[in-house]
Structures are given as C-alpha cells and as structure tokens.
Amino acid sequence: MPERTSRIAEARRRAADAKQAALALAAAGFLAIALLARASHPGHASSATSTSNGSSAVQSQNDDGLSLQSGQLAPSGGSGGGAQTSVS
Amino acid sequence: MILASATAWYAARAGGILAYLLLSASVAVGLLLSGRARLQRWPRFALEDVHRFLGILAGTFIVIHGGALLLDHVVPFSLGRLLVPGTASYRPLAVALGVVAAELLAALAVTNHYRKRLPHTLWRRLHMLNLAVWGLALVHGLTAGTDAFTTWALVLYAGSAWLVLALLLLRISVHWNPVGSTERST
Fold this sequence. Notes:
The complex is a heterodimer of chains A (about 90) and B (about 190).
Chain A: H1 2-40, E1 47-50, E2 56-59, E3 71-73, E4 83-85
Antiparallel strand pairs in A: 1-2, 3-4
Chain B: H1 2-34, H2 44-71, H3 79-83, H4 92-113, H5 120-144, H6 151-176, H7 178-185
Helix pairs in contact in B: 1-2, 1-5, 1-6, 4-5, 6-7
C-alpha cells in the first residue's frame, strides 16, 4: 500500500513538473514567436490618419515599403475613408 | 502609441500561433488518453491533469490573441467583430473560422466543468468536437495568419498537424482493432 501511494505521489509530482515545463515553454515560445513574427514581417511602420468624415485610414507597410499581401478593410461605419492594409 | 500598437500586433500573432500549438498538444494528449495508451510512468489521472492544463493554457493564449487584436490598430477589431463570426472586415471567412473555434472551445469547456452532471456518452461525444475546434484553428491560422507561410510557421503548423493526425489514425486503428489494442495494452 505505501508503495502504491508513493507511485501515485510520484505520478502527481511528474504531472506537476510537466505542467510547470509547459508553462515555461509557453512563455518562452510566446517571446520566441513574437520575435520571429517581428523579424519576418515587421509590418507595423503603420500610420493611422483620420479623414475628414471621421473614419480612419490605416496603412501598414513592411519595412522595405513593399506590400506583403493586401486586404481591403472597410471602415466600421460611414461610406468614405476606406482603409487599406498591407499586412500579410 | 505606435510602439504599443506594434507590441499588440506581435502579441496577437504570437498568441494565436501559441494557442494553436497548445491546443494541438492538448488534443495529442487527449488522443493518447482516449486510445487507452498505457504509459508505465504516466497513469491516466496524471495525463488527464496535463491534458486539462494544456487546454486551459490554450484558452489563456486565445484570450491574449483576441485581447491583443482589440488593442492593435492595424486591423481594427471591435469586441462585436471579435465575437460575431463573419463580421470582421479583414478576411471575414478566415477570421470567422477562428471565432467559431474559440466559441466552440469555450462551450466545450463549460461541458467539461459540468462533466459529472452529464451522461458520460453525451460528454464524450461533445468532447470529440475538440477535434473540430483543432481543425478550425489550423485552417484559421493558415488562412488568416500573417505569418502562416513563413518557413518557421509552416514547420510549426506541419509538425503539430502531423502529430495530431498520426495519433488520430492510431486511435482509429485501435478503435477498429480492439483485440490488437488489448494485446498491446497488456
């Protein structure tokens, strides 16, 4: 019986260690992926400007000024002032 | 302001990819559990504990992903657009897949919370929908992700997809060959 208890306790400890490792890996992975994302598509030499009708036009470019992939963004309301981004 | 927005933009991208990876890990452990795998040093309760924790961690990073998108100014998302599928102005279908996946995951988390009050068969069938969540998240990442087709992201997506699909095939083969699985487990 004590042996069984110790095996259960050992498994509990192993699970706790695995969870701690997962948490540490997730935190490190988050930073690493953010840095990779920054390196691959800096993306955000962004400038947000307001148009006369109050809607905003957001333009984002890669550091070299090239569009990566384009997607059209409609403003949340109003008819004019379409926003264009070149995030990819 | 621009610096903060850039940080939010990187956090959104990293949070999304990490949420998918953690979800993949959770699904992989779940497939091991459902396949009745016998790991000598890992009793079922310990694997369940890790499986649950990975799911919670995935959910946390989904919240970080969504929260960072709200703070970011490149792709203007309102809370409504983050919660209602198909209303995003940026790649609406691709974003909708992510929204549906996140909301389905939240609903399944509720069923997990009330697991003991639900009939086991019902809970189990509902729990299998996590595979659909994983599939939706994968397609969402590939179609909406800014970094989806960079080499490093493709390696992460392909590696995790391969792992989950391999375990799923193993699980299906065990299901259709129960005698073999009994022999393997003894």
